[in-house]
Design a protein that fits this description.
3 domains; disordered C terminus; Cathepsin D, subunit A, domain 1; single chain; 5-stranded mixed β-sheet; 6-stranded mixed β-barrel; mainly beta
């Protein structure tokens, strides 16, 4: 057949059997012809990437009808403020996809990456990772969000967007707690991820999401020493990635992380629920922009400290929040002073307390675990977060041959917010169960594999790691999420095991 042929299809509808035969035979019946045109003209050379991009866009639309599964991300970085001081992951955006290293931040909502037109953006990073810029001109699936778009109107209502007549683009400009900030405009494009859909099926998946394309940075975000390509906000608002994907049934309305504190750091991050029988849960304070918890008391070696309960009240800018975007931990003055005094009183007599640059520090010659007390943060629902000395102390170096360790809590003057950052979040499973408005945690070796559950639009939980299932469930899948060492930091891999059990 000659090149450039016309594709035709005969459509027969609503005909009796005899009419169908007649139509197909070309005699006397009703013949209906639908003309199809090529998406790519045969006379023109088409790059393979253009075809792949068209298929990816098609697949992302199809994905929205799939049952939900979990999504895993790689994790790099550490909580060590003198090394990396943050945790980051990789996201792939655009068609063809491009990879970006973005900080994991539960204290904000928006996923944003730097645009090719960004001003004051670092060109290299002291973390030893390549920096990339999102170039809308090179993505075949990108779509800017205009001021007239209903999405922009909903964003403006939560005060993270603004519109101007210039370019008719939905803009944003916001500032973080450390004084740094970013501005740019919202776009829609394809996000790519590894997803477990249903029973032990892992697939390379994608979905369109709205994210920020940053054109300007200020504050610490302009510095190169710990520069990344953007920030991955895991907040509760509708524009966060977890909210966008869960609202379409692509992922469960829960995410989890396990951040490794020792060695080269890294860890595990999933849009899904990590399972462990030791996890304790506490409710979230409702109607708050952050992950606020009801902190009720603080204890040292089991003894509750005499702290005025008013300092723990959630109101305005006061309260207690969990924030993976914060390196250290911050404690309001009314709780900080009693805590430091109790720790100092409880340390071994061989420990020498000193003040260094305004910080409470200690000179020690042995393991901190043997010489310092445990600290417990007690939350509503009977959930306690017990901190080992390594969870609240930061190593500062040596003085006269003795190791110097300092309290990792920073005093917040007067009224303010207590922030639990990576210092205390590390070496624990954390589950952010947005569907049930609660957060859970358990001590864990984050170099080990974890068990995860799959929900497929039903209330089904897969008890991974067990070879038996509840009688209320018809199928069990056994698999674990693991991580491995790659290029000097830990990258998440999925190890899928592997079988079905039917009752």
């Amino acid at each position: 057949m000659a090149a450039g042929f016309l594709l035709v299809i005969t459509v027969v509808a609503g005909l009796a059997e005899a009419d169908v035969v007649s139509a197909l035979g070309g005699g006397g019946g009703f013949q209906r012809v639908l003309t199809l045109e090529r998406a790519f003209p045969v006379e023109e050379r088409v790059e393979l990437e253009a075809v792949k991009a068209r298929d990816r866009a098609r697949h992302s639309r199809m994905l929205q009808s799939y049952p939900g599964g979990i999504v895993d991300f790689s994790v790099g970085g550490t909580s060590d403020p003198y090394a990396v001081g943050l945790y980051y992951t990789k996201v792939r955006l655009g068609s063809p996809p491009r990879e970006f290293n973005v900080q994991i931040d539960t204290g904000s909502d928006i996923l944003w990456v730097t645009c090719s037109s960004c001003n004051d953006c670092p060109l290299n990073s002291g973390l030893g990772i390549p920096l990339n810029f999102f170039d809308a001109a090179t993505s075949s699936t990108v779509s800017p969000i205009s001021c007239s778009d209903s999405i922009c109107a909903s964003i403006v209502q939560i005060a993270s967007a603004e519109c101007s007549n210039e370019g008719n683009l939905c803009n944003y400009s916001f500032q973080y707690g450390d004084g740094s900030g970013t501005s740019g405009f919202y776009m829609s494009d394809i996000l790519y991820f590894d997803s477990i859909l249903g029973t032990s099926l892992i697939t390379n998946s994608s979905a369109p999401i709205v994210f920020g394309c940053t054109t300007s940075l200020f504050g610490d975000l302009t510095k190169s020493d710990r520069a990344v390509d953007g920030i991955f906000g895991f907040g509760q608002q509708g524009l966060s990635v977890i909210s966008q994907l869960s609202s379409r049934g692509i992922t469960p309305k829960v995410f989890s992380h396990c951040l490794r504190g020792e060695g080269s750091g890294g860890g595990i991050l999933v849009l899904g629920e990590i399972l462990d029988p030791r996890i304790v849960y506490t409710p979230l304070v409702p109607s708050q922009p952050h992950y606020n918890l009801y902190l009720q008391s603080i204890a040292v070696n089991g003894q509750v400290l005499p702290i005025d309960q008013a300092v723990f009240t959630t109101s305005g800018n006061q309260g207690t929040i969990v924030d993976s975007g914060t390196t250290l931990a911050y404690l309001v003055e009314g709780a900080y002073d009693p805590l430091v005094a109790a720790i100092t009183a409880a340390v071994s007599t061989s420990v020498k307390p000193i003040i260094s640059k305004g910080n409470q520090c200690y000179l020690i010659s042995a393991s901190v675990g043997e010489m310092f007390p445990t600290v417990a943060f007690n939350f509503a629902g009977g959930a306690s977060m017990v901190l080992r000395p390594i969870d609240y102390l930061v190593r500062m170096g040596f003085v006269d041959g003795a190791a110097t360790w300092c309290i990792g809590f920073v005093k917040v003057q007067n009224q303010g917010t207590t922030i639990l950052g990576d210092l205390v979040l590390k070496d624990k499973i954390f589950v952010y169960d947005l569907a049930h408005q609660r957060i859970g945690w358990a001590d864990y070796d984050c170099t080990s594999s974890v068990n995860v559950s799959i929900t497929s639009g039903k209330d089904e939980y897969v008890n991974a790691g067990q070879l038996s299932v509840s009688r209320s469930s018809s199928t069990s899948v056994l698999f674990k999420l693991m991580h491995d060492t790659y290029n000097n930091y830990l990258v998440l891999h999925l190890l899928v095991l592997i079988g079905f059990l039917f009752l």
